[in-house]
Description:
This protein is mostly helical. It is 69% helix and 3% strand.
Amino acid sequence: MTALIVCHFVLAAFARPLVRALGARAFLVLALPPAATTCWALTQWDTAASGSSVDWSWAWMPDYGVSVDLRLDALAEVMVLLASGVGALVLLYCASYFSDTTPRLAGFAGNLLAFAGAMLALVLSDDLISLYVFWELTTVFSYLLIGYDSEHRHSRRSALQALTVTTLGGLAMLIGFLIIGQEAGTYRISAILADPPPAGTAVEVAVLLILCGALSKSAVWPFSLWLPNAMAAPTPVSAYLHAAAMVKAGVYLVARLAPGFSDVPGWRPVVMVLGAATMLLGGWRALRLNDLKIVLAYGTVSQLGFLTLLAGVGNRDAALAAAVMILGHALFKAPLFLVTGIVDHAAGTRDLRKLSGVGRALPHVCAVAVLAALSMAALPPLLGFAAKEAAFEALLHGDTADRWALGITVAGSALTVAYTARFVWGAFLRKPGVADTPVHRVGPAFLAAPAALALCGLVLGPGVGWTDRLLSAYADAFPAPAHPYHLALWHGWGTALLLSAVATLGGAVLFAARDRVARLSRRIAWPTADGVFGQLLLGLERLSLQATGFVQRGSLSVYLATTLLVMLAGQLSVLIADRPWHGAPAPRLWDVPLQGAVAALTCAAALLCLTVRRRMKAVVLAGLTGYGAALLFVVQGGPDLALTQFCVETVSMIVFVLVLRRMPVHFQESVSTWRRAVRIPVALAAAATLGVVVWVAAAARVAPPAGAAMVEETAHHGLKDVVATILVDLRAWDTMGESAVLAAAAIGVTSLIYLHRRAEGTAAPSEVRGRTAWSVTTEPLTGVPQGDEGAPERGWLAAGATLAPEHRSVVFEVVTRLLFHPILVLSVYLLFCAENMPGGGFVGGLVAGLALITRYLAGGRFELAEAAPLQPGLFTGLGLFISTAVALFGLSDGTVLHAWTYHGHLPLIGDYEFGTPVVFDCGVYLLVLGVVLDIVRALGAKIDRQIERAAAEKAAARGAGPETGEATP
């Protein structure tokens, strides 16, 4: 099972080179994983039909009870056959539907196959959390597929609408999953259904939240608005996602959980009422639309309501009817969508008012469509007829609510017959006063996929008994009635057959009066759900703009004060209510007097920040507070923390200085006396509150500190540096997450500042000889040697020729030249000595970044380009790749980030050891180096370019001035 799922995603990743090499024929290769999955599922038919299951479990994090569980039982068998079998045929259909020159074909192909893999994993998941993950993956891939034609506004809007509706439902469902998992004590679906948690308020709320997600996924009213708009996607997407796969996920979830939760109060009313309403509303709307795909879309909405109703009724015969109807619906709706795509290709339109005589021109296409349509209309001897008979029979022998639902389903079935007849008439028959539509021929390969599906519906009609054993294995999870129903095409004359005849006759009457029905439907039509959705989004956008305008006033001091006041209110409320300081030991002012002295100097530097008016002084004083904190770490005996703090403060100060070049020298915000009188107490109160909270939190410890255990564990592995071992081994998950956040934050910030490329290539010779920010002088200097006269006799820097003599410092250049490589060596030493000495990848990357910053400060942006000619993103991406690879490599022993240590011996060097934590730390080193380089290039080199452009414009204006003056009389 896992190999088949992985194959889908792996081959999807190679879709681009396949499409580049094979064109549209690449779909034939991409169809192999779904085809192989279908063959595997067929080999497991007997196992699933016997009531057994194929289980696979992987304990991902056994200490936390987190595992990935897959299970193939009878219901999953049906869904796997549909998701994979229909998926394989749709991919084969795509080879004829698209041409080699179709734009963005590779992305579409990869997304479609990846969706098939996500859908396969969804129906096989036996764990609520895994199911949710793959549930959301189908949402993401469907968003990409619906928005395939992203150049059109309608496609983008439809994709966003589908994403919004299904994602909101999915979030509600996740909350329900978490509640159910906590109440049941497990997230294993099979275990929950075997022993459901007792009904209570929590379970009832959880069930309603889960139904919210399921109904939104299956486009059940009031969430049905997104499915018709999703017809903006290419026809293969509609045939697969909206007939056989994605929209079935919600019905599948209802069917999966019904054996354990159908008796929970609220389940049946929600499922039956909304399902019945959806069946009627969707069918009625389909009678007045003219686009063939939209007619099928609303028909799909109607059928999904029917399926949801059957799956949620909660008895054995209804569950059997739901299972066979799920199968039948896929086998008639998918070929109808595919045939619609063929008609659109051949005739150039899907408007049934413009189509005429297509059936005579394309008789084979018409035959396939009629065969599938007869099954959708539930006429014998097709599978649709057997499925509807089973549904009528199940509801007929139910309780009062079931019989009310039976009446609605009969009316809905009449609507189904009517819009089915209207589809066939509109697509293929001749119409009075409309000329025959010119069409081109359709090859047999184009028709093969819909023909195969329609023939399956024809064969399984008389042969529906072949599926009875498999589908009954699922239905038997419900209490067995006295006379259980068994699937067969013919059950003799009875009430169910009479109701089928009534529905067929009613549909024929509605079709015969189609014009009057359409006019009546338009006359009494409610506001469309799509319009309501648009108005809601517009109102939400206006509200957000008003709220943003009220809150975001553009004042950093107001934002900071608001944050501090909210924090103060929350923390003081808790402190006053709980009084947690009772029994807490009194805090010590210091362990040694030196701590008090450093703390006093640090506080003094912080207070001095309030008195200065120059930005540069404020930056220096703020940096001194950071250095003071580093000194406290030194005094306390934390050299690792101190070293990191020193490097971070140094880089931060340099970044501040680079930014301040483009800002006014003085603070321009005028602070009134009353504002200052308010700010000072707020700041002092926040500081005091945080101090009390830290003291109370430290005093509230009841368990022994973990430090001793970590020291012991570090010594057990022959290491000495506990901090570094924690970062790259014991708590490597935290480091990995923080590294990813750091990379994302740095890239995001620099991207917001400069939308164009952040990297600078090696300077061209002609550009090097030009004016740069380091050779720009605001006014011409007199008495200063020009050109090479005042320059040093030799160049100490690679880009020294770009510097103006008045901006060069021989001492700085020499020091930079002498120290650059030793600093890099020091950074590598800090990287590899971290197991036994202070250091690590993070501080090593910062030190390497400081070496590059020194080159930039000494020689400008061209010097930085010479020192680091590679893209910053290369370092960042490579670092993330190495860290992630080490994490995944641990899976070979069953645990992510599992550490290995290799012991060896080298001549002259002696014994050595090399562990995966060192490799992980190398990834951190490269990531931090890339982040620092990215920031320096964005805030340094790019600002240099701005200065150069401003100087050039100023020089041009100065040069044009005299000419203008001479021309003036």
